[in-house]
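Researcher: We're reviewing a set of sequences before deciding which ones to prioritize for further study. For each one, I'd like a predicted 3D structure that I can look through quickly. This is Synaptophysin-like 1. If possible, include the structure in token form so it fits the rest of the review sheet.
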Amino acid sequence: MMTGFRLNLSPLKEPLGFVKLVEWLTAIFAFGCCGGYSGKNIISLFCGDGTNETLTANFHYPFRLSQVPLIEGNATVCNHSVTTTHMVGDSASSVEFFVGIAIVCFLYSMVALLVYLGYMHVYKDSDFGPIFDFLITAILVFLWLVSSSAWAKGLQNVKDATDTGGISATLEVCKGSNITCEVTEFASLRTLNISVVFGYLNMFVWASNAWFVYKETRWHSQKFSSQPGPGRQQVPAPI
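Model: Here's the predicted structure for Synaptophysin-like 1, in token form for your review sheet.
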């Protein structure tokens, strides 16, 4: 068996290679839309004496909100003494899991494309390559589902913690009857929403690719080779 590198771009014209290229691109968008995110919300405090004060909530990837201070040190807000106060919540585990799966898929897609374009003759001449490819693809479909669902829930937690209701519940001073707290400037969460969409899109793309990889395995070929052809009748064994 010849195992040398032979560049052949024809697999990109077939579903097996083309879908793998799409997987590579969608993985980039998935982790790129949330990996470097940072945002800022402006909170306005309307004091009972007619004065207004503002606070700033800066949050960023990986969204360990419990480490984000709203008020640092002892301060006076609306004539009330307030101690150090942090935001509530931690979505680091879900978003880091999501980004980790996206990076793994990005790297695996690159390796698979290298095999398809340079070692397809080896890939098709062995049982190990297609079967290994199919099993890894099936596992990654499941991991995309789990990680995307976890990050979607984590993102909702971030939204709840940074909106008016979440901030008002966090700041003790906002619980007073004569003080109103409101988030007047919201950070754009568009890219984070897009990352969730790309997460589920990746799941569907990898699931479709699993079928094309399965067709390369001996399980698929044995299934069709065992079926009798049209017009072929089974001959009864002689007695």
